[in-house]
Design goal:
Order of helices and strands: EHEEHEEHHHEHE
Distance between the termini: 36 Å
Strand content: 5-15%
Structural class: alpha/beta
Strand order of the largest sheet: 3-2-1-4-5-6-7
Number of helices: 6
Shape: globular
Radius of gyration: 20 Å
Number of strands: 7
Oligomer: single chain
Length: about 210
């Protein structure tokens, strides 16, 4: 069961496209694959999905109703593995005990680490509020880092604790995760690059100025 907040429509974005590619390959290999979303149900009306697309409105139902609905889906479709395509526990916190959870981070974790003092200095402030934030960020970089990352670290830790594996798009991000969340099981982290479906002719690698 692939879980994402939106229905899995490949043309809508990278996560949906990657999910659809993996789902089609797993189906080809004999696995039973399903999709589940918990936002934007209106997108499901006019699209033909490559796998059965399910929906649970977790934000408008009680916790008990969510647990009951999700347990029914797990039982009815005989699901033994859930691929959580967001580093959030919005959905997985309702899963029954015993279901294998693999969570995937499709972006750079703690991406605010990329923003240096030099980059902040070069950024133009559009109003007094932005100017105040710029000055405070330059003077107190640790405060700026905490402001952006403390909530993210809590969310990541919840997901890592509940997941059997957490997959990143590169193992180069592991050190960053360990720095922000030192007390996690490091053996849970793994990395798989995004799939590339484009044919690359290595013998004739001439580039053209074409968009």
């Amino acid at each position: 069961l692939f879980v994402f907040d939106e229905p899995i429509i490949p043309s809508r974005g990278g996560v949906q496209r990657v999910t659809d590619l993996l789902a089609c390959e797993l189906t080809f290999r004999g696995h039973s694959v399903f999709y589940l979303s918990y936002r934007f149900p209106e997108l499901m009306a006019s699209y033909k999905f490559s796998c059965t697309q399910l929906f649970v409105d977790i934000f408008r139902q009680s916790d008990d109703k969510n647990k009951a609905d999700i347990s029914r889906i797990i039982s009815e479709y005989k699901i033994d593995c859930v691929i959580n395509q967001l580093i959030k526990d919005d959905f997985i916190k309702y899963l029954p005990v015993g279901v294998k959870i693999i969570s995937v981070c499709h972006v750079q974790p703690f991406c605010y680490d990329n923003i240096t003092r030099e980059r902040i200095w070069k950024t133009n402030a559009q109003n007094s509020r932005q100017l105040l934030f710029k000055i405070s960020s330059l003077l107190l970089p640790k405060l700026q880092e905490w402001f952006h990352n403390h909530g993210v670290a809590d969310e990541y830790k919840k997901v890592i604790d509940k997941s059997e594996r957490v997959c990143f798009i590169s193992d180069k991000f592991f050190e960053r995760v360990f720095r922000h969340i030192p007390d996690i099981n490091k053996d849970k982290l793994c990395a798989i690059n995004n799939p590339n479906t484009f044919f690359v002719d290595k013998a004739n690698n001439t580039k053209e100025n074409i968009m």
